[in-house]
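R.M. (postdoc): so does anyone remember the format we settled on? I'll just put the structure tokens first.
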């Protein structure tokens, strides 16, 4: 019978289990189940799936698309406000459309990748559209309706759901 050894990462834990590749002792909290047996975290080379592996280049592309679409969405909302006035219903619907536009645009810019960072980037674009639209509306003297904030929440939800 083998004498129990200690896990290098958790020295107070005894174990008889060893990595199938490097033969290093591993405890149950360190082991990674792979198709060829149990391995240590170094040998298992755990990586996120390619769809969720967002590097800095994709993140920069997503941020650029989010800023551009946020400014454009705010300007479009302002133009629609000048044409249609401060009607609460259409402003909420318009921000839902802006949320979809930003979410889809960022998704296309990052080659349909997904992840938490991209959710934040898309929601920041929706918030930028909100800020730009409020700023342009205050400059032109047209007031936003009270449901614009509701539209912002719906826009956040729709943009985040793309990821």
């Amino acid at each position: 019978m083998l004498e129990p050894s200690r896990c290098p990462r958790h020295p107070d834990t005894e174990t008889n289990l060893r990595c199938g590749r490097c033969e290093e002792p591993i405890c149950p909290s360190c082991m990674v189940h792979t198709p060829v047996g149990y391995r240590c975290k170094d040998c298992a080379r755990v990586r996120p799936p390619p769809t969720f592996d967002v590097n800095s280049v994709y993140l920069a592309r997503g941020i650029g698309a989010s800023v551009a679409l946020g400014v454009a969405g705010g300007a479009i909302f302002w133009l629609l406000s000048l044409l249609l006035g401060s009607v609460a219903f259409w402003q909420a619907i318009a921000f839902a459309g802006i949320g979809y536009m930003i979410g889809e645009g960022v998704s296309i810019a990052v080659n349909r990748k997904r992840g938490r960072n991209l959710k934040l980037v898309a929601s920041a674009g929706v918030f930028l559209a909100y800020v730009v639209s409020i700023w342009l509306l205050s400059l032109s003297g047209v007031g936003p309706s009270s449901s614009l904030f509701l539209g912002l929440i719906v826009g956040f939800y729709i943009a985040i759901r793309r990821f």
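R.M.: ...and that's the designed sequence above, right after the tokens. Also worth knowing: The beta strands are 5-6, 14-15, 32-34, 37-39. The chain has five helices and four strands.
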